[in-house]
Amino acid sequence: MTVTSVAQILEELAPLEHAEDFDNVGLLVGDSAMEVSGILVTLDTLESVVDEAIAKDCNLIVSFHPIIFNGLKKITGKNYVERTVLKAIQNNIAIYAIHTALDNSSNGVNAKICEVLGLGNTQILIPKKDTIRKLTTYIPSAEADNLKEKLFKAGAGNIGNYSNCSFALEGTGSYKAGANSNPTIGEIGKTHFEKETMINVNYLTSSESNVLNALVKHHPYEEVAYEVYSLENQNQHIGMGMIGELKEAISELSFLRHLKKTMNAQVVRHSVLRNKPVKKVAVLGGSGAFAIGAAKAAGADVFVTADVKYHQFYEAENKMVIADIGHFETEQFTKTLLVDYLTKKIPNFAIRLSESITNPIKYF
Known about the structure:
By secondary structure, the chain is of the alpha/beta class. It is built from eleven helices and 15 strands.
């Protein structure tokens, strides 16, 4: 199994196209064609993690956070980033980072937090824009059903929990083949009229290359007429944060105790309590203060996240409670999620959960 093969499996869960624009995801260090001896899954890639990979004979590190975030002009070992990258290169260890691609996955970071907290009826808190495209093409009616099936297999036609979704219209197409053409139907130099079906299907941007390749490969015409549109529709299954419900409403203090215990938090920083029951809870792993407004708009009783600044706690405005449990604490279960996922996808392969504690924040 190569690094590319592992990356393809990871991108079924979290396509890199769904990562945020500012992020640095995918293969950061190493040869994509290298044979993988073992995989070490970690939250952060540090020198100690590379040492652990060496000791466990793992030549691929799958990391949540990218060790290379800003551009490196030199790799001389003068700081922890350069030392980590240098050690990985010297020991022929590849590093793959998944970060916000997994943040935006409906089965990713925030789904795991919801699972740990026991939240049900979950939904994406901030649906991601610009992830849906629409394909329109025209094909001889006798070939329409076959082409639709090929497009479905390539990833088109999925809307929420529904698959094989399409819309078709019957009409008449016309064309005149030029001197250097090789028309499938019709004659060179003569205008031809053909009974055609217009097919419309939606697909995710992450599936675009597969869908367009299937279109060209299975369309009978020498020149394929098609149009691609970017849709403004929000994707309810991809995006940042999640919101869900507890089975039964509990008091704010009871929820904060539950939160601290289940998430192994050393401390919970929170805004003013409202003395109201907690039923609806929004979560966003990592630095999630940007989603305070979205959590309020969604009617959350509590918003669980990290890295909230002093003045941002005021933004709760007595409409909900903001609970900051720490960056590491909100994302700590991510590596377990990835190990479980990879183990199911690649049984009987060496997949190790990193034992290195990479949280840079200590509590006194």
